[in-house]
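FIELD: query
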Amino acid sequence: MHILGIIPARFGSTRFPGKPLADIGGTSMVMRVVNQVRKCRMIREVVVATDDERILRHVEENGAQAVLTSPDHPSGTDRCLEALELTGADADGVINIQGDEPFVDPAQLDLLAAMLLKNDTEVATLATPIRDYTTLTDPNKVKVVFGNAGRAIYFSRFPIPFRKGLPQDQWLHTGPYYKHLGLYAYRSDILHRICLLAPSPLEQAESLEQLRWLEAGYRISVAVTPLETPAVDTPEDLEKVRKLL
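FIELD: result
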């Protein structure tokens, strides 16, 4: 199976403009992500999808592939589709890799790629167990519930499931809760279809694009991983990962 890894990398981040070019130990953040993806066994090709000439030049000067995409995409998923079309790659599947996770684990990406080998997989993603109350109640940390077959039932910014009759600070002790990790694998034909969907009521309520796919009847397979690598959303986060390095 030909799997293409795509790294969306916007220059104009609201909280951290120019974030993909931020230096981490002598290497830019976007090139650190590229180098991690290159360690994967199952991703044949990797490309950076950017809306900025500076990022494009930087990636190409460092020996990697990049394409210039529209600045008007509403999501990384839409940017991935344009990148797939611009590369002309005859890919069976696409993995959307966050450009702000410089230490993304190749084993996680290979896990996603392996999920695409299953005939019933349309979209795949990852979740990790929630271990602290702060994460459970943080609306910026998306939660997911899924069935015995590993299919997503719902994603929410609210802690799900709700535990009736119990104080919220006891919920973590009554059963597993899972945080959604923002990595996606799509079958190429499914990627084309979901990008044609109009925004849906649940998506607009929670501001989560994956709810649009669920509402339209698409299957999202979920695999659980114990790994969670740090993301860089702000300059303060950048200092934290520099210290980790």
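FIELD: remark
Residues 214 and 220 are 7 Å apart (CA to CA).
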